[in-house]
Structure formats: C-alpha cells, structure tokens
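Dear H.,

Thanks for agreeing to be a second pair of eyes. The structure we're designing against is below in token form, covering all 253 positions.
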C-alpha cells in the first residue's frame, strides 16, 4: 500500500490553520516587518486567508524558504509551541538523517553518554540477553523496522526513498537504548556505538544465525556514498583514524 507523504506546504498550512484570527493578523504584521529581501507587502497579505498567505510565501521563497520564514515569524510572535510542532513535522527536511555530534569544551568529540542518554537509561530497563543485549524473541523483523522508519520519515515531510534518511530513523531493537533511533544513538552515546560494533563482530565470528535481533545489528540499507560524516577518533575508536556514519552500520554485517 502506498504511503501518503506530507509535504512542507501541507505542514505550513496546518500550522497557520491553528492561529486564531488575531494571531493570523499578528503573523502578517510581523511578515511585513521583515527587513530581508524579498519583502512581503501589506497589500499582498491584507484580507487574505491563511491558505492564500502560504501560497504567497511558497511562491516567494520556495517551500524550504517559506518554512524558515514561518518558523522565524511564529517564534517572534511567541507562538513557540506551534513553531516546535511545525519544526518536528518537517525535521527530515532539515537534518537529512545526519547526526549532530556533541563536542567537548576543547572541541573534541564527546563520546560519553549525554544527559538525555543517562535519563533514558535510568527510566528503561534493558533486556536480558547476551552480547549487545536484547532477546531474539523481542526484536522486530527487518522489514517491520524499515516500514516504521519510512512512516516516521513521511511524518517529518521526508522522502521515504532516501535510504540514508530511512536508516537514520530505524529503531534499535536491543540493549539499554531499545526503541531509540540509530541517529539518536550516534548523537547521544558514541562509546556505546563502539561497544555494539565490537560485540557484534565477536558474535559474527561464532555464529551466522540471522535472527531478527542479529538482523537489526546489520546494515539495513547502505548509506549513500559521499554523505559520510567523519570525526576524529578517541576513546573506544583509538584504533581508527576516522569513523563514518556508514562504517557504523557496515561494521555490523
């Protein structure tokens, strides 16, 4: 069954539809006060519906540009929750699946668990299992993981045919971070990423069994060549000069 993709334009319309009459007027006032070109004039928005305003913004700035303008304008009129909801719905358009790595105060890679990771670990009991954790009976099949990831990408206005993006939204089926995405793992606990790689490589030396759990540790879809994110190694990656987004997944084969 074909999945319906939510577009940026649709998300923009949904956002402005939530503004009250006065809220929309305030939004238009702020638009007219923008100093960057091209400018939006009073005449172009006066008496217009939110649908017409979105059409104007998209034709003036393109969909991606209109998204930036709407987010900035919503925040300026203190509609922060609405802006956050819109940002969440269009997240895949902004990050393209690329993780944002944390850095220490001296600019080096921060490989330790983030505060978010520590909080998640404290509120979720890891599954009892050998190796990197997790019971084979609890892991979803690869096709289920991929289908869920594509659905998430669609909900964020992303392209479900973008293999790298789908891969980033795939959820971990084992261990203390079960339920989080691969992208989240890379952003929040690099040391654990190294642990997964090392333990899985050892597991593969002793068995070729392809359970759903093992399959989740294997590269679901090859990250597109040329889009690797490289960062200097440290701690658990001391044996490598560089480590890439693709290497994380391909090493799990």
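And this is the sequence the design step returned. I haven't edited it by hand at all.
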């Amino acid at each position: 069954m074909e999945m319906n993709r939510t577009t940026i334009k649709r998300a923009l319309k949904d956002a402005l539809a939530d503004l009250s009459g006065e809220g929309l007027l305030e939004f238009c006032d702020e638009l007219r006060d923008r100093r960057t070109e091209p400018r939006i004039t009073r005449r172009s928005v006066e008496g217009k519906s939110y649908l017409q305003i979105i059409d104007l913004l998209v034709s003036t700035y393109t969909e991606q540009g209109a998204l930036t303008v709407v987010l900035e304008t919503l925040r300026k009129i203190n509609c922060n929750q609405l802006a956050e909801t819109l940002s969440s719905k269009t997240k895949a358009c902004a990050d393209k699946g690329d993780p944002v790595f944390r850095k220490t105060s001296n600019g080096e890679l921060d490989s330790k668990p983030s505060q978010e990771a520590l909080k998640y670990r404290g509120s979720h009991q890891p599954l009892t299992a050998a190796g990197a954790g997790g019971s084979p009976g609890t892991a979803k099949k690869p096709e289920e993981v991929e289908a869920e990831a594509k659905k998430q990408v669609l909900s964020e206005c992303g392209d479900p045919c973008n293999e790298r993006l789908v891969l980033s939204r795939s959820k971990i089926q084992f261990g203390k971070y079960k339920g989080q995405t691969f992208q989240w793992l890379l952003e929040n606990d690099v040391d654990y990423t190294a642990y997964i790689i090392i333990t899985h490589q050892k597991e593969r030396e002793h068995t070729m069994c392809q359970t759903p759990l093992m399959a989740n540790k294997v590269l679901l879809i090859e990250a597109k060549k040329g889009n690797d994110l490289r960062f200097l190694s440290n701690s658990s990656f001391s044996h490598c000069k560089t480590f890439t987004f693709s290497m994380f997944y391909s090493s799990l084969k």
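Two observations from my side: The longest strand covers residues 231-232. The chain is about 50% helix and 0% strand.

Warmly,
E.
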